[in-house]
Amino acid sequence: MSERESVRVAGEPGSIDVSGLPSTTFGHRTITWWGTIGFMAAEGMTLIICAVAYLYVQRNFQVWPPRETPLPSLTAATIQVLLMAVSVPVMMWTSRAARRFDLGGVRVGMLTSTGFALAFCVVRWFELHALHTRWDSNAYGSTAWAVVFAHATLLIAQFFESAALSALLLVGPVEPKHFSDVDDSCLYWYFMTGAWLVLYLLVFISPRV
Amino acid sequence: MTAPITADPEAVPPEARPAVRELHDQLERVWSDGPGLRGWLMSTDHKSLGKRYVITAFVFFLLGGLEAAVIRAQLARPENGLIGPDLYNQLFTMHGTTMMFLFAVPVMTAMSLYLVPLMIGSRDLAFPRLNAYGYYVYLLGGLFLYTSFFLNVGPDAGWFAYTPLSGPAYGVGKRVDVWAQTITFTEIAGIIAAIELIVTIFKQRAPGMSLNRMPLFVWSALVMAFMILFAMPWVAVDSQFLAMDRLIGTHFFNQAEGGDALLWQHLFWFFGHPEVYIIFIPALGFVSTIIATFTRREIFGYPAMVLSLVATGFLGFGLWVHHMFATNIPQMGESFFTAASAMIAIPTGVQFFCWIATIWGGRPRFATPFLFILGFFAVFIIGGLSGVMIASVPFDLQVHDTFFIVAHLHYVLLGGGVFPLFAAFYYWFPKFTGRRLSERLGRWNFTLFFIGVNLTFFPMHLLGLHGMPRRVYTYLAGTGWGSLNLLATIGAVTIFVSVVIFLVNVARTLANGELAGDDPWGSSSTLEWATSSPPPSYNFAHLPVVEGRYPLWSRPQEPPVVTGLRTDQRELLITTVLDARPDHRHRTPDPTIWPLLAALTTGITFVALVFTPWAIVIGGALAIGPLVAWGWGKPQPGDPVVTEGVE
Amino acid sequence: MRDWLQSALRPAGPEAASVHALWEFMLWTSVVVFVLVLGALAWGTLRRRPAGADPLAEGGPGERRMTGAVSTAVGATVVVLFVFLVFDFSTGRALTARREAAVRIEVTGHQWWWEVTYYDSIPNRRVTTANEIHIPVGRPVLIRLNSQDVIHSFWAPDLNGKRDLIPGKESSLWIQADSPGVYHGQCAEFCGYQHAKMAFLVVADRPADFARWYASQADTARTPTDSLTARGQEVFLSSPCVMCHAIQGTPAGATMGPDLTHLASRRYIAAGSLPNTRGNLAGWILDAQGIKPGAHMPPNSLTPADLQALLAYLGTLK
C-alpha cells in the first residue's frame, strides 16, 4: 500500500455534508433540464438540416415552387401558428403550477397540453395537404415534405409525452420529481412551437416573397 | 467515524473496519446489478455497460481488421484472383463502415462513458437507463449490418455511399438500404452518448472540481460530445434522405427532378470531417492523461491545451469541403477551405509542443502506455503533415481518391486514434479488471504494431503519387504497383500478429495476471485511481472533494470527502456547472429491463424500414409500451410520494 | 521512373509540373518539420536528468524557458503555414488562368468506359471514339466532363490533377503535353463493379500526326473488300452487337457501348484492360464477363467461322 491509500477520516477540513440539500429542483439546476436541452439541440439540428436541403435544391429550380405546382395554401398552417401561440401562455401557467407543486394545476395543464398536441397533429395533416405537392413529385416536394414531416415527429412525440404524463399525474403514484418533468415538458413545448414559427416562414411564406 | 473514498477494510484502522464493511455492503446492495442473467440484462451501471461497449467496439475493430486483411491479400499482387469485384466492394465498404461507425467513434464514447463518472467523482452517468438503451441500439445496429453481410446483402457503395451510385437507379437490391439504416442506429447511440457525457460533465463533478480543474481527458470528452451532438444529425438525416429516395421515391439526390448529388456530399462531409476530430479529440485526452502519469509532472500549459481542444472542435466544422475539391467548387470557396484546413494545424501544434515540453520537464518512464504515446507522436505527425499537403487544392487534385489519401487517413486515424487507444487500454486495463497486462507482451505488441503500421501505410503514399486510385479490386502488372503493394500486405500481416499478441496478453492477464491494486502506476493524477480496481458498483464510498487540478497529487493525508448522500437508495450529487458547488441530490432510477426492450422495438423499426415505410408506424406503436414502462417507475420505499393537496 | 504506367511525380505538362514543384516544396518542408519535432521529442525524452529529482515532488522546473520554446515553435508553425498558403494560392491561380483552347474535347463517363467526342462546326467532321484521347502536343486542351450514370473522375496524373464527372453538372479540366507520347489515366472516383478497369489513354501527337489521325477518325468505316470481312460485317449486323455499338457508315448506330468505327486504330480494348490484339478481342467478344465481371458487355456464342470473320472485319476498322 502506498502512502496515499492510508486512512481518511471525515470531519477533515474541506469535507462537505450534503444531507441538507434538496432532492427536487427545477430548471437549469436539474440534469433533466440539461438532457432536454441536449435533445432539443439534436432535434433542432435535424430541422435545420431539412431546411438546408430545402434551400439547397432551390438552386436547381428556375421558379419555386416549380411550374404547375401551386403555392402552398396558408389556411391550415396559419391556424397552426395561432393555435401554438395560444398554447404557449397555457404552458407557462402549467410551468408555474409545477414549480408550486400544485397537483391540481399540473393535471389541468398537462391534460390541456395533450389536447393541444392532438390538435397540432390533426392540423398538421391538413398542412401536409396544403403543400399541394407530394414527396415523390420532385425535389421541391421532397424537401418541403421533409421539413414539415420532420417537425411533425416532434408533435407526435409531444402528444404521447403529454398523454403519458397526464395519465401518470391522474393515476399516480406521483413523486415530486414529476413536477420537474412537467416543467421540462413546458420548456420543450416552447422549443417545438418556436421552431415551427421559423419553419412556417420558410415553407409557407418564403415562396411568396 | 472514518469516511474513506474506497470502502476497503484493509485501508482503515482495525476499529473502523466493521463500519466500513457495513457501508460497503449497504452501498453494494443498492448499486450493484442484480444477480444472474436477469441482473446482467437489466444493468444500467455505466461500468458494466461501458465495458460491454468497449468490448463490442473492439470486436468490430477485429472484424474490420479481418476485412482489411482480405483486402490486402487481394491486392498483394497484380491481377490477383482471390476475390472478385462484388465481394471486394462489399469488403471495403464494410471495412470503412465498421471502423468509422462501429469502432472508432463508439470506442471513444465507450471509454468516456466508463471513465468520466470515475474521473469526476460521481456514482453514475446522468441518465443510466438512456445509456443502456444507447448501448443496445448500437449493438443491434452492428448485428444488423453483419447479419446482412453474411446473407450477401452487405453494402457495396463505399462507406461514403455517394449518390447516384448508392441511389435507386444504380444501387440495386437492399444493400444500400442496410447501410443507411445501420447509420441511423449508430447515430442514435452516438447522440445519446453525447448527451449523457455533456450533462454528466456539466452537472455531476465532485465538489471543488471547477471547470478550470477538470482533467484534460474530461475536457476532451466534453468537446467530443458537443461535436457529436452537432455533427451526427447531419449524416443521420442524410442517410434517411437516401433511404427515402430508395424506398418511397423522393428526389433529394435525383438530378432529373431537381435534386442534387452534391447535396449528399455536403451533408455527408459536414458530418464526415468533424467525425475525424470526434475520434481524434478524446485520443488527445488519453495522451495528456498518460503523459502526466508517466512523466510525473503536470501537463505544461493547461489553459493552452483546453483552448486548443475547443478551437479544434470549432475549426473541425469548417473543413468539410476539402473532401470535395474535385467537384468543381468555386475557387473562392476552395481558398477558404484550404486556409481553414491549414489553420487547424495550429491548435494541434500547440498541443504537441506542450506535450514535448511536459516530457522534457518530467521524468519519463517507458511503460507500454508511454511507448504507444511515443508511437502516436511519430505516426500522427506524418499524417498531420500529409494533411496540410492535401489542404492544397492543386496537390489534392492529384492525390485525391488515391492511395496517398489511404495512407494519410490511416496515419491520422491509427496514429491519432488507435495508438492512443492502445495506450489507454494498457493504462486503464488494471482499473477495468483489477489486473495488469504483461509489459513484456506489451512491448512486443507495440513494436510490431509500430513497424506494421509504417510498413503497411508508408508505401501507399508512393502508390498514390504513382497513380494508384483507391477502391480498385485489382490492377494490371504493367502499372508497376506490385512490389509496393506486396510490402503493404507484409505490413498488414505484421499488424495482424501484433493484435494477436494483444489478445493473448488480455486472455493471459484475465486468467492469472498480476493484481493491480488501486493505483498500479504510482503516479496517476485523476480520481478513478482513488477507488478500488475494479471499482465497486457505487464507484466511491464517499465522493471525494477536489482541491486542485491533479487531485491525487496534491492530496493531503486524509482528503476531504462528501458525506450525507443517502446510502439506502441510488442518489447522485448534482453540482453547479461552473464551480461544481453542491446543489442538490438526485434520485437516479434503479436497474430495469425496459431500455433493452425499447431498444429492441427501435431495432425492429429500422430493420423493417429497409422494406416498408410503414415500419415507422408499427415500430412507433410497439415502442409505446416499453417507453411508458421505462418512465413510469414504482416508487421504492423511502421515495417521497405526492398526494392531492400536498405542496 | 519509367517503370510506372502513370505517375504524378513524372510531370509531362505544365499543369502537372507546377503541382510537382509545389509537392517538392511541401515534401522538403515536411521532412524538416518532422525531423525537428521528433528531434525535440527525442531530446526531451532521452536527455540526462539529475539523479533523484522527482518532478512530482519538485514542481516543474524551467517553466519560463518552456513557455519561450513553445511560443517560438507555435510562431514558426504559423510562418510555415503562411508560406505554404502563398505558394499554394499562386499555384492554384496559375492552373486556373484563362487560356485559348486549341482543342475542345467532350469526355463522358459511362460504367465503365469513356466516351470521347471532338466537336467540329461541320457536323460530319465530328469524331466519336472511346477510351483513347488524341491531343496535339504543346497545345492547351480543354476537356469538358460529364457523366451518363454515376460519378466518375478523370485523371491522367502525368498531365494534371483530376476532376469529377458528375451527372448533370458539367465540369472542365485543362491538359497539355510537352512531348509526344502515350499517357495513361484512369477513373479515380469509385463508380461500381469495374471501377478498377476504367482506364484511358491520352496520346499526344505532333500536330501533323494529330491532323492525320483526326482526318481518318472523321471518316466513316471502311466497307468490306473481301468475302471474309463482308461475312464479318454481316455477323456484326445480325448479332446482338448492334444493340449497343455503332459503326459509322453501317446501319449500326447504338450508343450504349463504345463507338467501334475505328476500333482497330485503338491501342487497348475494354477501357484500358487489354491490349488490342486479335486474341484478346476474341476472348472479350466471347466472354467479357470472365475478363471484366459486371461489365455491360454480354457473353456471345459464335461459331468459330463467324468469330474469325467478325475478327477479320473488326481488324479492318482502322
Strand order in space, largest sheet of chain C: 3-2-1-5-8
Percent helix of chain C, as a range, is 25-40%
CATH superfamily of the largest domain in chain C: Cupredoxins -  blue copper proteins
Task: State the end-to-end distance of chain A.
Answer: 76 Å
Number of helices of chain A: 5
Oligomerization:
heterotrimer
Report low-confidence residues of chain A grouped into runs of 5 or more.
1-10
Number of strands of chain C: 12
Q: Mean of residue pLDDT of chain A?
A: 91
Strand-pairing-aware structural class of chain C: alpha+beta
Distance between the termini of chain C: 33 Å
Given helix and strand content, the structural type of chain A is mainly alpha
* Cα-atom radius of gyration of chain A: 23 Å
Question: Helix segment count of chain C?
Answer: 9
Major sheet characteristics of chain A: none
How much helical structure, as a percent, in the residues of chain A?
55-70%
Element order of chain A: H for helix, E for strand:
EHHHHH
Mean pLDDT, all residues of chain C: 92
CATH class descriptor name of the largest domain in chain C? Mainly Beta
The CATH topology assignment of the largest domain in chain C is Immunoglobulin-like
Quick synopsis:
The complex is a heterotrimer of chains A (209), B (647) and C (318). Chain A is mostly helical.
Present the secondary structure layout.
The complex is a heterotrimer of chains A (209), B (647) and C (318).
Chain A: E1 16-17, H1 31-58, H2 75-99, H3 103-130, H4 139-171, H5 176-205
Chain B: H1 17-31, H2 36-42, H3 46-75, H4 85-119, H5 128-150, H6 175-203, H7 216-247, H8 261-295, H9 302-315, H10 331-343, H11 345-361, H12 368-391, H13 393-399, H14 403-433, E1 435-436, H15 439-465, H16 482-512, E2 514-515, E3 562-563, E4 571-575, E5 582-587, H17 594-609, H18 615-631
Antiparallel strand pairs in B: 1-2, 4-5
Chain C: H1 14-46, H2 55-58, H3 63-96, E1 103-110, E2 113-118, E3 127-130, E4 132-136, E5 141-147, E6 152-154, E7 163-165, E8 171-175, E9 181-186, E10 199-205, H4 207-218, H5 227-238, H6 241-244, E11 268-269, E12 274-275, H7 278-286, H8 288-291, H9 304-315
Helix pairs in contact in C: 1-3, 5-9
